[in-house]
Amino acid sequence: MVWEFVPWSDEFGLTIHPIVSKSGPNPTSPIFFFFSFFFSQQPNLTAPFHIISLCLCSSISFSQTLVYSLPIPMASSVSTKPFRTDALSAFSSLNSDLRSLSSVNLRLSLRPRLPNKLQIHANGSTYGNHFRVTTFGESHGGGVGCIIDGCPPRLPLSETDMQVDLDRRRPGQSRITTPRKETDTCKINSGVSEGLTTGTPIHVEVPNTDQRGHDYSEMSLAYRPSHADATYDMKYGVRSVQGGGRSSARETIGRVAAGAVAKKILKKFCGIEILAYVSQVHKVILPEDLVDHDTLTLDQIESNIVRCPDPEYAEKMISAIDAVRVRGDSVGGVVTCIARNCPCGLGSPVFSKLEAELAKAVMSLPATKGFEFGSGFAGTFLTGSEHNDEFYIDEHGKMRTRTNRSGGIQGGISNGEIIYMKIAFKPTSTIGKKQNTVTRDKKETELIARGRHDPCVVPRAVPMVEAMVALVLVDQLMAQYAQCNLFPVNRDLQEPMVPELEREEVPF
């Protein structure tokens, strides 16, 4: 058996050869190897290698050090030695140093690394464990889209399924959204054959057709206040000037496309419905008692351009957006989202609580600044006796709660009630009013941003929120079914994840 530790350099890695003695290995005493490598990018400089220590222990604290714990045979003796080697000498001197570290039970050697196959890791652009989504593309690039990995096979799927939500998200819908004209027509390039998913990665792409790079000439020199321009430059030392690159809301096209697939899975296999709507624009707040979450429909939400289910408050919200739009300013708002018919048992204790996963997902959307679950901050004004959701048995023999201040989740796990949350979105940062800012070379200046931007993001954020909630729930559904529903231990409480009636609809 061989362990190879890589990468130490582009060409070489350290190889550990455990040699089993006649007395056999001692599996209870692992050897901990601590290595620190500092490799200069200057080819003319010497590349130092340091083995900090090679020791026997049960545990040790460390900082900024690679740690490897291997249950290999005990070495009869341990020695440590710092060593150096010239990068151009093929590490010839290093081999002799490694031989001095060897023992009767352990041999260290150096060998050339074999080239690895290409691996793509989209750091920060991938979400999910079982239902994984990677988005790609930028606002003013050739296009945007997503790759969906983990979608079940034999699911009926076409571009039309995604296009419905993409049309709800696209720009140029009305006077209260950005005037940028994009059809956002999607194309499925892989993962679907003859109308059915194949179980392989689904590649979805949407071309950009209405870019105006010249609108960003002034913003290439000065940072937009409260925008990602400055922080992207601070982190990467470079940024995409046109449209904000990955920080643009256009990135969410991939999320919405993937979310449409997730929503179809949830609806078909569990009957879960996810609906979001605008509940606040600036100072116009929709009273909660005007919306019945048990009977709310998509038609009610889509009956007006602001996506508020109450017509009277919808007009007030539209007027609030119009008032700032004509002045070149912007306002924020709140989107409320619900998930009906969610089964019990989704989510995990401690770090993977369902509300924590939902918060992470929706707060990754552009312009989000707040998240409230169930009773939220208003619950802090109640006592325990006022806030607790008491249990009862309904007419179908099912355990329910009389109230739902927990928002459908208790202890990080869904309880079968309606899941609901609120997400706050800040005012659009790119506005047509004069603002003070600085340039990249740290000179103070004034900026009037050009371009086409939403005076309020919340009407178009509605399908984005639905998509992220769907991605969380389908990922959690797959995890729950794999862990707990193959062998349920309490059939009275553990409801079936996949009703037989729904499974019959899936073609085989």
From TrEMBL:
Pathway it works in: Metabolic intermediate biosynthesis; chorismate biosynthesis; chorismate from D-erythrose 4-phosphate and phosphoenolpyruvate: step 7/7
Cofactor note as given: Reduced FMN (FMNH(2)).
Record field: catalytic activity: 5-O-(1-carboxyvinyl)-3-phosphoshikimate = chorismate + phosphate
Enzyme class label: lyase
Cofactor: FMNH2
Domain of life (superkingdom): Eukaryota
Naturally occurring in which organism (per UniProt): Clitoria ternatea (Butterfly pea)
EC number: 4.2.3.5
Name of the protein in question: Chorismate synthase
Keywords, comma-separated and alphabetical: Amino-acid biosynthesis, Aromatic amino acid biosynthesis, Lyase
Molecular functions (GO terms): chorismate synthase activity; FMN binding
